[in-house]
Write a structure and sequence with these properties.
about 65% helix, single chain
Length: about 180
């Protein structure tokens, strides 16, 4: 059996793990355990990383939410499930739920409300195509949004809003005939 990692080597493993992106304390602990660190060494390393500000579950949860908002918007339910999967404590998730995101000027266009996130997810999914007019196509869009973590009422409202916007803009309704 291999000898457990010493504190210096464990700190090096954790630092390399944190070099790619922020991580939750749970993720770092798991990585240290896989590398062979005993629980006491992992606790010491996590304590030191927290003192240095390199491991902070609150900052990680904010970062994760902001990344999702910018790149792949998710509904609150799915975002919270992802954070739970990353080992973020329930209290941190609940505090994040009530907190309005602070946006730097360069991220001002990122969605900040559930409706804005759903709108952004729908727009990205449609990629400039018009909203389908058939019932089945609209149901598929609704299910897409629900799978992304948005509640059904928000999904319906955003789809209706997009349909109203298209009809106001004079987007031609497909006639069903082949040209």
């Amino acid at each position: 059996m291999a000898e457990p990692l010493g504190p210096t080597l464990a700190l090096d493993v954790a630092a390399r793990f944190l070099a790619t992106r922020p991580r939750s304390a749970w993720e770092v602990r798991r990585r240290l355990e896989r590398a062979g660190a005993d629980p006491a060494t992992a606790d010491d390393v996590l304590r030191r990383l927290a003192e240095l500000g390199l491991v902070d579950d609150v900052a990680f949860a904010r970062w994760w939410r902001d990344q999702r908002d910018r790149h792949r918007p998710r509904g609150r339910r799915m975002l919270e499930a992802e954070l739970r999967g990353k080992g973020v404590p329930r209290e941190v998730i609940e505090a994040l739920r009530d907190e309005a995101p602070e946006r730097p000027p360069e991220a001002a266009s990122a969605p900040s409300t559930e409706e804005e996130r759903a709108r952004a997810a729908l727009e990205a999914h449609l990629r400039g195509r018009p909203l389908p007019t058939d019932r089945r196509g609209l149901e598929r869009l609704g299910m897409f949004l629900v799978r992304r973590g948005f509640d059904p009422a928000t999904a319906r409202a955003i789809i209706r809003e997009r349909g109203a916007d298209e009809s106001d803009a004079g987007v031609a309704e497909p006639s069903g005939e082949a040209e």
